[in-house]
DNA sequence: ACCCCATATTCAACAAATTGATTAGGTGCG
DNA sequence: CGCACCTAATCAATTTGTTGAATATGGGGT
């Protein structure tokens, strides 16, 4: 039940509504914690019931009203306790890798090629968005300076992991594409 | 319900019992599809009911008997159909990254340092095991030769992704450790 | 003898995730 | 005026995943 902690961690970066959290998760958290909006809303309810977050309604004129959530002291305490427990190993579910594993049996190299290109394109998009976020965080400073002097490094370090992961995907899909392409060619000379 | 496909993909590499699959998942599949033994047994049941795999009992004298599963033609057809559908984006759950993200608020750099070292050690172990598997697959051939000439590339390519991922973790945790260590030092000169 | 470990599988209870739909006001476009 | 899209949230049903335990056999060590 650890989406709760991912939510608390996100709220530790500042208050947000469920909708805003959904977007935050989509753009910046998805590479280490995946969740749908429905999940977020449901768990925010429960966090509120447990007193780990507080909600207040913000009335808006040109948009629907929203409920903005803030982490409570109890929430911070829970996050701290979580931080001191050993972590579960990362859990992954990646359909494309399953397809690659079975690709020698399923034939159809064209389908995998197409999927690999789609995967690469998606990773490039994510990387580009991550790079924007990075530039915004750095504000012109170098990475070394930022990591040494800024008052906050957590979000930068996780962003860095996300960037590295997307770069890995770009490199790896390139190998997959090259491999399949070469093997499709009739072995000439 | 895609553990079914991960199971079919694993069985496409050859028949296996539930117990053997659990180990296969643990050592070679875990970096792209996580599942517990209980899940495997349960889904193997269902795959059998749906006619996608077949089981036969292998009597053993020095060990408990086991049920060995084989993919059926219907199973292969299902795997092919799966291969042609678009893939869902990868889903991740990584507690340690959540802790790093919140680390500026939770204080206690010692706890994160320790967790980072544990993570690095685990990745090194996994990488070492992956390297063994790789050497066994290559049988002395170079990677380039293998990818061009061998009759099977799927398992090698997924193994490659796993190796790259563990290497990423080693590199990234090194940065985390260096960052936290530097920031803990009293800023001298 | 005793205990622990590895093989091999199963059951049940509970918690969490996924899927799909629904409601509702506002904005921008043609 | 109608349509599509964005903000904002909620509901319900079903499928998956997690946790903990139980069972049975045999091998190795002290």
From TrEMBL, chains A, B:
Pfam families: PadR, Vir_act_alpha_C. InterPro entries: Tscrpt_reg_PadR_C (IPR018309), Tscrpt_reg_PadR_N (IPR005149), WH-like_DNA-bd_sf (IPR036388), WH_DNA-bd_sf (IPR036390). Residues 92-180 form the Transcription regulator PadR C-terminal domain. Residues 7-80 form the Transcription regulator PadR N-terminal domain. This is PadR family transcriptional regulator. The lineage of its organism: Bacteria, Bacillati, Actinomycetota, Actinomycetes, Micromonosporales.
